[in-house]
Amino acid sequence: MRRARDRRTRRSEHLSRPGASDVSKIEFAAAGPTIGEFLRRRDYVQCMIGPLGSAKTTSTIFKLISLWEQCPIDPVDGVRRSRWAAVRNTYPDLTTTTIRDFLELVEPLKIGTMTYGSPPMFKAKFRGGDGHPVEVEVFFLAFDLPQDVKKARGLRLSGAWFNEMKELSKANVDMVMSRVGRYRPDLYRANPECWYGCLGDSNAPDSDHWLAKLVAQKPKGWWFGIQPGAVLFRNGQFTVNPAAENLQNLAPGYYDRMMQGKDEYWIRQNLGNEFVFYADGRAVHPEFSQRVHVAPYELEALPGLDLTLGFDFGRTPAGVILQRQANGQWWVLDEMVTANTSARPFAKTFKRELLNAKYENYTYEAHGDPSGGSGGQATDDTPFDMLSLGGIEAFPTFTNDFDVRTDALDTLLTEMIDGDPAILISPRCTTLVRGLSGAYQFKRVQVSGMDRFHDKPDKGPESHVCEALHYALLGAGEGASRVGEKFAKEYQQVEQEYGGWHPSHHQFE
Hints:
alpha/beta, Rossmann fold, Nucleotidyltransferase, domain 5, 2 domains, 10-stranded mixed sheet, 7-stranded mixed sheet, 29% helix, elongated, disordered N terminus, disordered C terminus
């Protein structure tokens, strides 16, 4: 943001003093393509999500100011009037960040005054670029708790600005949104071309946050501008992304210095703009990136190509469905995660709700944890027997060694095929994505003064579906070149017992 004179200049004449002749001008040049698109959008809700330092808040304030001159004209006196709410999660954040950023851009225009009442309010009067007088009220509201929703009741607003949207509760956002378009609705009915709605800016939320879920759902009338990450994770280290927005307006070395001493997930979320699951532990698969490895749309199986199934057992069995594409790329199409059940009912449900319902004309190979070849204390039936009784023929992988199976996936996460990631996951696999984003983790050991972690990953729904993916890839031959002599004997035993390593294809009934 800078002040100058050119075709982007917004002219705002100060009307608070009769005969005032000084004219303040503001120019705002979009510092990247996402910001440029945001400034042009007319959707009911427009939210920009980006890393620290990406100019998303400044861009949103500028758009807010520009919208004041686009509100409908009152036919009685020719004035463009509007009323807005600027919303933040806490009062300290509201006063030290939101109001400060707002005034930094607005005060030089000399178009209004700020009063610190309850709530704080900005009022402005000026002459717009088209000659019409403009009158604006902006209420600054803090919503510290979900019960603060009552603050929004009774408001009549033209629009709202949600600053750091991820810090707000969904209940408070919903209530404020219900008050938008309520100020002089008669004028909006008479001038349907005039916009009203909500603006938002935010750093990347956790992968299971309500805002992240809305990004995936893409509600009608909502637009999300996802800025490029300021940093990229490549070859085991973070580097500054040359495609990051607003780089030209930051101090030299801004992101290089910002990364120093920071936790990996803090960097991924706040600088990489990744929707990671922020966990206190260490991710089993740190190379996974939701922006890279999750498809922008739900993947569907391609006819003529076989499927690969993977299973993990126990009382929380999980399964995944994969398909290797003609160029060798893997697509993870579907998942099923259960709790407190056994292999047989799981197999029946998996077959009925996924295989028969969506993939009945495909052939498959199925693989699972080799420890599932052992019977329980009360029966000789193994989980593989239970899968067979449920209608799914599956075979154990030659090993469940943690390093081997995680390496099979890690290798794919770091490879590209024809310019695309070697493994791509459908967004419908929500538990798998959450697990790979960090929920499948080594828990932190509570030791004062140092970072130490357990040597085995924490168990839960995410761990089981991630390990089902491991077994699918191992069974399909991924990672086999890295096994070496260590597992040659085990490989031969399984091959001999099952009459050949690769089981025959099976057609779904």
